[in-house]
Amino acid sequence: MSTIRKLTALEILDSRGRPTVQATCTLGSGAVAAVSVPSGASTGAAEALELRDRDPKRYHGLGCRQAVAHVNGELNDALSGEEFAAQSALDGTMLALDGTPNKARLGANAILAVSLAFARAVAVERQIPLYQHFADILAGVTGDAHAPLATLPRPTINLFSGGKHAGGQVPIQDVLVVPAVATTMDEALETTVAVFQAAAELMQRKYQMRMLTADEGGLAPPFANAAAMLDDAVEAIRAAGYTPGQEVALAIDVASTHFYEHGRYHLDGAALDSVGMIARVEEWLANYPIVSVEDGLAEDDWGHWPRLRSAIGGKALVLGDDLLCTNPARIQRAINEGAADALLLKVNQIGTLTEAAQACRLARSAGWRVTISARSGETEDHWLADLAVGWAGDQIKVGSITQSERLAKYNRLLAIEAETHLPLVGWPTP
Q1: What is the DSSP letter of 74?
Q2: Cα gap 411→386, rounded to integer Å
Q3: Beta strands 174-179 and 248-253, pairing class
Q4: Which of 62, 184, 334, 426 is deepest in the core (most CB within 10 A)?
Q5: What pLDDT, on a 0 to 100 scale, did the predictor assign at position 100?
Q6: What pLDDT digit, counting tens, does each position of 67-120 carry?
Q7: Higher confidence at residue 235 or residue 162?
Q8: Phi and psi (nearest 5°) for 51?
Q9: Does residue 218 surpass a pLDDT of 90?
Q10: Separation between Cα atoms, residue 338 and residue 353, nearest integer Å
């Protein structure tokens, strides 16, 4: 049982210079912990609502003073002095206080900041690493018992960016590197740095472009089309001395919702119907070593997602982000309809650790893979790395190997690897 003594919050800035929320939780035992929450740019319509001030005189309306005030005021007043036997008890109390289906009153950013700060404070109180406490939360273990830890997640690391992460110079959002044969996190990062540096040199030669990066640290030259983006990724892998599809594979975040309008996918000068979009994804898989396709169709194109899975399932993960929004109800629908076989888990899409754990368990029960993901607007807080280890993520998607808010997570994974000696999860099989 843990008693909250005090909750406080502060408006801070994320990696894009936009406001977000940092919360600090002090427990009756004296344990104290702070957490900073991220914010997305490419957001699904079903995501929990980040509360923004909408004051055009501050941060173009993106201020978070109201969310901060809710932590310092209503949440602190309601929760201080209360004892909670488990994370689910705290989160359930906050959901009841908010009283809306999407956390619109108090704000998902305020609620999640408290949810995570409490979890970190309890880990301090229990004198265990945060990743172990996260594992215990997922398994429902309390007291002195501990859930077992199995593997480290295999990183999928941003190489090239387009879409909303890079000003839309090419429609698809991300091409990511997957170190396929690396057996340690150290080796995986070493491989990725070599590919990234080779890509940067290629961009200089081919586009006369110095190493300018997008929101998540990916390179963002003016690709002519999606095929050029993928061609250059393969060329960079070869230039780094690796064999595409054997030593290094690719993953893509298509983010199709953002170029879907009136039943058509507006991609590279074509207006494709859903069947045509599926055919385009199949073409990419035939021509490039792609092992994961995220949001290959739009979030509301439910009728065609089963067809996409039928077409590429077994060749690449059919990974749902905007489609699922880490929302258990949407995940259950996708399971029932055979619409996907992998979940991109973003805790701030749903707004509490308890609901995110429910989403994770539901995906696992269906035999899905789970990728633990950061957001485009991140901070140097590295709790996500602990979450990915504690919840046995198959993959972790943090961004590129540039920019300190990304490297904080990778460096934390290196520290966890040194401490636990856990192996990387064995995916993909080359």
Answers
A1: I
A2: 11
A3: antiparallel
A4: 334
A5: 95
A6: 999 999 999 999 999 999 999 999 999 999 999 999 999 999 999 999 999 999
A7: 235
A8: -80, 120
A9: no
A10: 26
Residue with tokens 């929101």: 215
Q: How far, in Å, are 33, 197, 244, 403 from residue 218 at the CA level? A: 31, 11, 19, 10
Nearest to 382 by CA among 58, 28, 34: 34
Q: Which of 179, 153, 154 is nearest to 250 (CA)?
A: 179
Reply yes or no on whether the pLDDT at 331 is more than 60.
Answer: yes
* pLDDT the model gives residue 359: 97
Q: Is the pTM of this model over 0.85?
A: yes
Residues annotated as catalytic are 216, 346
Q: In what order do the strands lie in the sheet with 270-272?
A: 260-261, 264-267, 270-272
Computed over every residue of the chain, the mean pLDDT equals 94
Query: What would the DSSP string read from start to end of 132-153?
Result: HHHHHHHHT--TT-------BP
Here the tokens at position 38 are 């991220």
CA 220 – CA 249 distance, rounded (Å)? 19
Q: All domains of the chain, ordered by start, with CATH? A: 2-127 (3.30.390.10), 154-420 (3.20.20.120)
136-150 mean pLDDT = 91
* Percentage of the residues of the chain whose pLDDT score is greater than 70: 97
pLDDT of res. 308 = 98
Long-range interactions of 18-21: CB distance < 8 A, separation 24+: 18/59, 18/62, 18/377, 19/59, 19/62, 19/63, 19/64, 20/64, 20/109, 20/377, 20/379, 21/64, 21/67, 21/68, 21/71, 21/109, 21/110, 21/113
Assign residue 263 a region: left if phi > 0, alpha if psi is -120 to 50, beta otherwise? left
HEC string of 256-324 equals: HHHHEECCEEEECCEEECHHHHHHHHHHHHHHCCEEEEECCCCCCCHHHHHHHHHHHCCCCEEEECCCC
